[in-house]
Design goal:
173 residues, alpha/beta, fumarase, five-stranded mixed β-barrel, 5 helices
Length: 173
């Protein structure tokens, strides 16, 4: 069954999704890879503001290619989530509940998802050019010095994803 889900994510939405569900996501999400995660974790540790409000939002582990003329973004595919595992538990505890990537997660991340009621969604790797067609708008919001790994706000329409780890810690990985 494919569910149509819109952001922002509510507790009710998170709780209704189960490991193995397929979804089409529409709304606003943010990109951030390992370099941005390191800076976000440092900001959190130092009491500095986050580059975006974590509550209700999703972070997509991706570093989009520059946009070709007339397009909002270039190719954009999921990055291996394990690269963010060192930072994820702290960000989850700070309010980030939904993450999008590919690959397995560390046990500490699964426990944080379970403890705080979150989700880990997976995107199919290798289809970055096709995924870019689901993005209608892209805007850099933080860490411009990281170039393609800066934090960007994306508007997505019917982005195909699978619930890999649900709020109970149940996993398909």
């Amino acid at each position: 069954m494919n569910l149509n889900i819109s952001t922002p994510f509510t507790t009710e939405t998170i709780r209704k999704l189960k490991a193995g569900d397929t979804i089409s996501l529409t709304g606003e999400i943010y990109t951030a890879r390992d370099a941005a995660h390191k800076l976000m974790a440092e900001a959190l540790k130092n009491g500095q503001p986050a580059p975006f409000t974590y509550e209700g939002n999703a972070v997509f582990y991706a570093g989009p290619c520059p946009a070709p003329p007339g397009k909002p973004i270039g190719s954009v595919g999921p990055t291996t989530a394990g690269r963010m595992d060192a930072y994820s538990p702290a960000l989850i505890a700070a309010g980030l509940r939904v993450m999008i990537g590919k690959g397995e997660r560390a046990p500490a991340v699964t426990e944080a998802i379970k403890k705080h009621g979150g989700l880990y969604l997976v995107a199919v790797g290798g289809v970055a050019a096709l995924m870019a067609k689901c993005i209608t708008k892209s805007e850099e919001v933080a860490y411009s010095e990281l170039s393609t790994e800066s934090v960007k706000r994306l508007e997505v329409e019917n982005l195909p994803l699978v619930v890999a780890i649900d709020h109970t810690g149940e996993s398909i990985l």
